[in-house]
Design goal:
It is built from four helices and two strands, in the order H-H-E-E-H-H. With 154 residues, the protein is mainly alpha-helical.
Length: 154
Amino acid sequence: MGFFNDLGKKTSETTNKIAREAKLKMKVTENKGKIKDLYEEIGRKVYENHVREENIDIKDLINDDCSKIDMLSKEIEDSRKEILILNNKKMCKKCFAEIEKDAMFCSKCGEKQTEEKTVLEKAEEKLEKSDISPENEKEAEIVKEELEQKNNEQ
């Protein structure tokens, strides 16, 4: 029975991962479409200003649209990073190619990859370096175990 339970659990995890990745990719595509529409809107505003020969500061006209593009671009970048994490991949620091998470060198450009500590690893390191009072040692040990567990899950 344990085999089938493990198999069912692994299948469920894989299905959830695939569904999450599909949702993220759809979000990226949707945001790219919104950015394209904003680019067109900016172009329309600039051209209309040119045709009317008005002395309106163009920066004021397009500032909101540019801010929206910045926000959508950040969402796209965050989604791409999450997709990489889901697939146990990372991005080369030099050429931005998608490479294996544990790769020492980029397979595309050959750049040596430096290990970046995760937020959990940084928190664990900070906890180890902290002076913990005797009455809080038990709580600190529990937090440390939870951090290690979460770090292993990634």
